[in-house]
What we know:
Blueprint: H1 4-10, H2 15-27, E1 35-36, E2 41-49, E3 52-59, E4 64-70, H3 75-82, E5 85-86, E6 91-94, H4 98-107, E7 112-115, H5 117-128, H6 135-146, H7 153-169, H8 171-174, E8 177-179, E9 185-187, H9 190-202, H10 220-236, H11 242-266
Parallel strand pairs: 1-5, 2-6, 6-7
Antiparallel strand pairs: 2-3, 3-4, 8-9
Helix pairs in contact: 1-2, 3-4, 5-6, 5-9, 6-7, 10-11
Amino acid sequence: xxxxxxxxxxxxxxxxxxxxxxxxxxxxxxxxxxxxxxxxxxxxxxxxxxxxxxxxxxxxxxxxxxxxxxxxxxxxxxxxxxxxxxxxxxxxxxxxxxxxxxxxxxxxxxxxxxxxxxxxxxxxxxxxxxxxxxxxxxxxxxxxxxxxxxxxxxxxxxxxxxxxxxxxxxxxxxxxxxxxxxxxxxxxxxxxxxxxxxxxxxxxxxxxxxxxxxxxxxxxxxxxxxxxxxxxxxxxxxxxxxxxxxxxxxxxxxxxxxxxxxxxxxx
Length: 267
């Protein structure tokens, strides 16, 4: 990717002149479109954008994307972004952020929600670590990794039953406490307990894809392709103001929609 100085030199302009010429482009920010998610899978994600966040909502089958911006990722921001979606999707896929979950319960109250397994596994590994020293940690790590191999509803039931047996077997170990010099006590294995709490709290929606047709188990449809490219653009232009970073996101996603539309028309 060329720098502004390199482009200016190539066009025989001064950098300041080219910057003034391009200023108008920053002011032509495309509006987020209303997308149709009727009987579609709606994937939701948020990324950092300047001092705030950008919300990205993609209807997979319709291959349409819309977006929104806010100062922070909360229920208000997500609720506003969800107003750009018409129709009732057959399922949602997200990282299950608290504000997102709350907004979705109002906007799409009866829609099945798939919690992104990649987020579950990634966060659990932060607390379990790559090389756990205890038997409980090592066996839980194996269980968490096996999440990604589940494909059918009966396999999900077996996994949940296995996890519950694991919890019962290691209950005494997880309840162990350490006492400090001042008499204060805390759970000895608090990080392992955090991982257990995370996994236990997501079992209801970690396997929605087994009962919702054609629903992906992760939000990689947004994160792995579109978001990866967008994040790279933001990284390369991290010196931009928040207002211009938002413009960059809007321009990128509008162009993404345009290219996808062209592809659909050709095929």
